[in-house]
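Hello everyone,

My group is preparing for a crystallization screen and wants a predicted model to guide construct design. The compound we'll soak is adenosine-5'-triphosphate. Before spending weeks at the bench, it would help to have a computed complex in hand. I've included the protein sequence and the ligand's SMILES below. Output in structure-token form would be ideal because that's what our pipeline reads.
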Amino acid sequence: MTITIGLPSKGRMKEDSSAVLARAGFTVTAVGNDRSYRGRVEGRDDIEIAFLSASEISREIANGTVDFGVTGEDLVREGLAEADARVEFCARLGFGHADVVVAVPEIWLDVDTMADLGDVAADFRARHGRRLTIATKYWRLTQQFFSGNHGIQLYRIVESLGATEGAPASGSADIIVDITSTGSTLTANHLKILSDGVILKSEACLVRARKAEHAGDPVVAEIIQAVRGAL
Ligand SMILES: Nc1ncnc2c1ncn2[C@@H]1O[C@H](COP(=O)(O)OP(=O)(O)OP(=O)(O)O)[C@@H](O)[C@H]1O
Ligand SMILES: O=P(O)(O)OC[C@H]1O[C@H](OP(=O)(O)OP(=O)(O)O)[C@H](O)[C@@H]1O
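Reply:
Good plan to model first. Here are the tokens for the complex, ready for your pipeline.
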């Protein structure tokens, strides 16, 4: 069986992903020209590379089109319900670090925890005539964290596809859920992370689609072992 690995074709994870595979002994080259979306591993006819964006990789792992992928844990958990049942996080790769966080305006002086935010949400309609709004592109993670982990039900998610941190200042939402790495975008937008508001500490991972035919496949085991050994 040929094993397909999805690797980022662009963006911040591209170079590090190929480098980690090279350290594991798999030298990746594009088939055809540099802009090709297929690649191969030198000396291996049993492994194929599919170059995709980081978010496409999490989708393709979910539907089983690729066997493995290198992508952010946040994208996998956001894209997939019951992620741990459907994929295996084989290795954390040590790059692409980003935290998915709940952040509120700095001037909300009395709001430091999710419990404080729950109180605000409960009073919001009485005070403002509408629900608390959250700007995010992380719908699933937000709902799990607010409703599942913290029992907060009174909010409305406002989809944000970019410049999420600007939403409170522009009035399009009250608070945000987004990723942060250095924290400078949050600071520049006068937002603070709640003390227990880190939803997920994400980084790039080697992720495997759980497929029955992987059991006992020596190439599957070899890839996992080699990548772990390269870290
Ligand atoms: N400062 C950061 N900003 C955005 N993403 C980051 C940051 N640091 C690490 N990441 C991680 O990088 C991944 C997204 O990578 P990238 O933005 O390159 O994807 P992409 O190629 O733009 O995907 P798409 O175009 O399909 O959205 C996510 O897993 C995210 O957690
Ligand atoms: O904590 P920081 O280091 O400030 O990083 C966080 C910011 O970086 C990302 O945006 P980016 O402009 O990189 O682009 P993207 O959202 O299009 O990937 C992300 O969406 C945050 O806005």
